[in-house]
Design brief:
223 residues; alpha+beta; NADH Oxidase; four-stranded antiparallel beta sheet; 4 strands; globular
Length: 223
């Protein structure tokens, strides 16, 4: 698989098989991904890879935290801006609508929608998960480097036959997770990532989001 195919076939995988992924396989993915672009070669990223009992413990902790506080913990790094412009709200809503339709979940079925949302914290059944952290000292440029690193991890995993799902939703329990993982005060958890073999029999894994055309977002000057 070349890089163009990996980019075009990668999706947010939300259903995984029971097939395990070895430590060696994950190490290889990260070993390749470390060549991701990095401003001034700061390489601001760190990763925490979990599986087995530790992954389950984190899932249980997250669900307990949200049971006590369904709105999630107050956070200095919100997932979305408070006043998200309408065009972005529409794109976000469109993804949810398409996904629930694929899964046969009705718009007014609040219990089913809530249950599916909570599956995020079970990593959608993936056998392994990666948390990405960054030192609080870093600014926007370094956060961009972290994002590029995450994208590279996804593309390498795709080329190796694995599926991934980036999960910013872990911000809802970021403080509790930070304490559980015994991180330093300066280390910030940005997001999680589910990792495993995609279950291609599940309808949710046929979801491909619509993207704007090049004419809608690109300006060419001097051509």
């Amino acid at each position: 698989m070349d890089v163009i195919e990996a980019i075009q076939t990668r999706i947010s995988t939300r259903a995984f098989t029971d097939e395990q992924i070895s430590k060696e396989a994950i190490q290889e993915i990260l070993d390749i991904a470390r060549y991701s672009p990095s401003s001034s070669n700061l390489q601001p990223w760190k990763t925490i890879v979990v599986t087995g009992d530790e992954k389950k413990a984190i899932t249980d902790l997250a669900l307990q935290t949200l049971m006590a506080n369904p709105a999630g913990e107050d956070d200095e790094y919100p997932i979305y801006p408070k006043d998200l412009p309408q065009q972005y709200q529409e794109r976000r809503a469109g993804v949810g609508k398409a996904m629930y339709e694929l899964m046969g979940i009705e718009r007014d079925d609040a219990a089913a929608r809530q249950g599916w949302m909570l599956e995020n914290f079970n990593f959608y059944g993936a056998p392994a998960a990666i948390f990405f952290t960054i030192d609080r000292v870093h600014g926007r440029n370094q956060w961009a480097s972290l994002g590029m690193f995450m994208q590279t991890v996804c593309l390498v995993a795709e080329a190796k036959g694995y599926g991934t799902c980036m999960q910013e939703i872990w911000a809802m329990v970021r403080k509790t997770l930070h304490s559980h993982l015994q991180l330093s005060d300066n280390e910030v958890i940005y997001a999680g990532m589910a990792l495993g073999v995609p279950d291609k029999t599940k309808a949710v894994n046929t979801l491909r989001t619509e993207r704007e055309s090049v004419d809608d977002f690109a300006t060419f000057i001097g051509f």
